[in-house]
Structure formats: structure tokens, C-alpha cells
Amino acid sequence: MQTYQKHLEEFDAYLTLKNFSKATRNAYGCALRQFFAYREKHGMDGPFTQGQAREYILYRHKQGLKWQTINGDYSAMYKFYREVMGLSWDVQHIPRPRKERSLPPVLSQGEVQKIIECGGTFKHQVFMVLLYSTGLRLSEALGLKLSDIDGERLQIRVVKGKGAKDRYVEMPLCLLALLREYYRAYRPKNLLFNGKRVGSAWAQRSAQWAIKNARSAAGVGRPESPHVFRHCYATHHLENGTNLVYLKEQLGHKHLKTTARYIRLCKSYQRQVRHPIAGMKITCRTDIL
Questions:
Q1: 45 — alpha (psi -120 to 50), left (phi > 0) or beta?
Q2: Residue 115: exposed, middle, or buried by beta-carbon count in 10 A (0-12, 13-18, 19+)?
Q3: Which residues are catalytic?
Q4: Model pLDDT for residues 113-154, shown as the tens digit of each residue
Q5: What is the average pLDDT across 71-98?
Q6: Which residues of 256-268 are buried (b: 16+ CB within 10 A; e: fewer)?
Q7: pTM, rounded to two decimals
């Protein structure tokens, strides 16, 4: 793999210049390293060829991997071949995998409430309320700074979300009140959710673990990924009649059709607007700090 180190560095430099996020650079870099490992294992020396790329994509299909994974492999190799190495890429010979039309998982409002109330600590509960109340992605929520919370305008500023885009997300009054209580209890520094050291970021794995434990404690046998709160946010909003265009801006979607897929998850799609959390009575306990 040492042979490919220079290629990996050049690839990362290209992604950096294109202003891709660190998470995206890491994902693409990992995908390319796996392709290099495949070449090394099968004795593929010499120049990179389209035949090798095609063979590797077929190999990943045979492994039974999900579309998202194979599509990520394809994107990384396409960029490496075309943009870094200056090689041709025949899309007829190596077509991009067709997107799977699968529906995201969604929970009922009752299940969301049970999971939140089964959070192991007050911090865990507040974090899950934030995810459900705003529809933020996990990385966006963990990256929030105290200065991003605007209590006067009832808005949260998301800095460099997916696609390096900034946006403002509205927050309900009940979330603001809970965040203020959380601040008085934990006194976070700089970032809203600190890790073990004050001022350091709370790790993604720790946040995922907290949500998984809460789901288990609640007895909800559904996916416990933090992203499920985002799916619930969108679906429950649409069921309460929230405008689709407004929701697109809140979620930070590039295309309206991405937001529109949540309509298929709705039991009803009405016109009146009412935030789903407004009718819930979530009890968060400060005695489990």
C-alpha cells in the first residue's frame, strides 16, 4: 500500500482544493484505498485501466454491498481516474449503479418520545430532542457552537452543512427552554455538546451509542441510527401539513425531489402547519446529569 501513498495524497489534495468536507474526503479516501488493496491483492501492476475499475465494481456487487457503498466507490474512482490521473472513463463501459428506490425508516411520535425519555443522561435526552426538533444531521448537531443558537429569532445557524452550505433552521420554543436548562446544568464551552474535556467535540460514536442504548431501553425494535430522527422530523412535519418547500430549506436539501420522497411515508398530508413536538410532553430529568 506504500506504493499508492503518493496517489492518495494527490487525491486528497484535489478534494481539498474542490472544498469537499473532511468527512467526504475521508470517505472517498477510504474507498480508493480499498481499490488499491484489491489491485495489490490481485497483482495488478502497471498503469490504471478501465478494465481494472470495471472488474472492481463488479467484485463489489458480488459482495452484496448496498447501493450507497458501491456508488461511493464509483464516485471516488471516477474522480481519481478523470480528475487526478487524467485518464478516460467510459460511462458506457462502466455505468454508474442505478439508485435503489428504498424508503427510509420512520418511527411514530410515540416511539420517538419513548426513546428520548429513555436517554441515559439529561445530555443524551436534550441531544435527541434537538435532532428531532430540527432535523439536523448528526455531524451538524455535534458541530453546533453556543454562538449558533439565536434565542431572539428562534433560529439555529448551521455552518457548512452538507455540500459546505450554511443555513438557518427554526427551533420551537420548547427546545430553546430545554437548551437553556441544559446550559445551566452542563456549562458547555464553545461547542454546544462537549466531549470528555470541556471545549472538545462530543464524538460521533458516543452520540450513536447514547441513542442505541436509549432505543434498547425504550424497547423500540427499529433502527437506532441518529439519522432516523431526521426522517421522523420530515415525515411528521409533512403529516402536520408543513409546506414542502419550507421543509426543503430547513433540511438543507439541494433538490425538492429529495424532500418529496417523505410524502410516501406519510399517513396523511394535510395543509395546516403545526410542529409535531408541540403536542408532546417529554419529561427530561436533571437528576441524571
A1: beta
A2: buried
A3: 137, 162, 227, 230, 253, 262
A4: 999 999 999 999 999 999 999 999 999 999 999 999 999 999
A5: 91
A6: eeebeebeebbee
A7: 0.74
Give the C-alpha distances (Å, rounded to integers) separating 31 from 70, 78, 257: 9, 11, 28
What are the structural domains of the chain? 2-84 (1.10.150.130), 109-288 (1.10.443.10)
Residue corresponding to grid cell 455531524: 139
Cell numbers standing for residue 234: 420530515
Distance CA 83, CA 28 (A): 13
Per-residue pLDDT at 2: 59
Rounded CA gap, 176 and 182, in Å? 10
Q: Which residues, 6+ apart, have CB-to-CB distance to 133 below 8 Å?
A: 171, 172, 174, 175, 233, 275, 277
Distance CA 58, CA 97 (A): 10
* pLDDT at residue 282, as a whole number: 85
Tell me: pLDDT of 268 over 70: no
DSSP 182: H
* Cα 94 versus chain centre, distance: 28
- The Cα 198–Cα 194 span in angstroms is 6
